[in-house]
Write a structure and sequence with these properties.
The structure is a single chain. By secondary structure, this protein is an alpha/beta fold. The protein folds into two domains: 2-124, TIM Barrel, CATH 3.20.20; 137-258, Roll (CBS-domain), CATH 3.10.580.10. 31% of the residues lie in helices and 20% in strands. The chain has ten helices and twelve strands. A five-stranded parallel β-sheet has the order 1-2-3-4-5, with helices on one face. The protein has a four-stranded mixed β-sheet with strand order 6-12-11-10. Helix 2 packs parallel to helix 4 and helix 2 crosses helix 10 (251-258). The radius of gyration is 21 Å and the shape is globular. The two termini are 21 Å apart.
Length: 259
């Protein structure tokens, strides 16, 4: 795999096909994601550098989490690699966002046993202060409808269809979470009213008591709570202390990162 730092290149970079190599662009955190678009057909991955290149021991920039989500949204077929300040806990967060490769230097070489540290990068779950807010998808990137009167069934279905996430979230005028609607909610409502579908309304498909969790909940506590549920969870709405919707944890990305 050959990484070329786009920030250090003047003009357009020419990448020639090589059957034995995979090419990718390395980019600083401040580099706009749109720079990658011109090379997306030539590159199989992008390497996000979160610290100053060449300087060991830097601190991971948490703004990288949003950059990872942006690349995933714009270039879903491109593998994402991250370099800089990655320890076992940061690695867990990146895996949960679907990052396929991390580069770790100081965490490994400063450990007492490098093989043990390497295994921690691949498998550890957070044991310190990582909160769900760190790995959630913000509300601005999610399908959200503001409730004004009775919910419109067609708008709910269109929102789910356009987002391709299988759900939509409903908030009131104060941006407080007031309900969710999933593909399953609509399917079950149709089955229950198969003989009178013309009477099916938006209010019939809304789940007014969804499972949710506060943004400052520790990830380890969230994982424990999920393991004790008697149902499958595809996504988890995240709220603040005033019940305002702030994001969602998408378990499809979480699972991809753990495979």
């Amino acid at each position: 795999m050959v990484s070329i730092q786009i920030d250090a290149v003047e003009g357009r970079l020419e990448i020639h096909a090589c059957t034995k190599s995979k090419f990718g662009l390395a980019a600083m955190g401040s580099t706009p994601t749109e720079v990658f678009r011109a090379y997306s057909g030539m590159c199989s991955f992008v390497l996000l550098m979160t610290t100053t290149p060449g300087k060991s021991g830097g601190t991971f920039d948490k703004k990288t989490f949003s950059k990872v989500r942006e690349y995933s949204r714009k270039f879903p077929k491109t593998r994402i690699h991250v370099d800089g300040g990655v320890n076992n806990e940061i690695s867990f967060a990146l895996r949960s966002l679907g990052v396929s490769c991390v580069v770790s230097g100081s965490y490994l070489v400063n450990s007492e046993e490098i093989p043990t540290a390497l295994m921690s990068l691949r498998t550890d779950q957070p044991i310190c202060g990582l909160t769900v807010e760190s790995i959630m998808t913000p509300a601005a990137e999610l399908p959200v409808l503001v409730e004004a009167g009775a919910p419109d069934l067609l708008k709910l279905m269109e929102s789910i269809n356009e987002s391709k996430l299988g759900f939509t979230l409903i908030v009131n005028e104060k941006e407080e979470l007031s309900g969710i609607v999933t593909d399953g909610d609509i399917r079950r409502s149709i089955i229950g009213r198969i003989n009178c579908l013309e009477a099916l309304a938006g209010s019939d498909v809304v789940n007014r008591k969804p499972i949710k969790i506060q943004s400052q909940t520790l990830v380890r506590d969230m994982l424990q709570a999920i393991s004790e549920l008697d149902r499958n969870v595809v996504f988890l709405p995240i709220i603040d202390q005033s019940n305002k919707l702030v994001g969602t944890l998408l378990f499809n990305s979480f699972i991809r990162g753990e495979l």
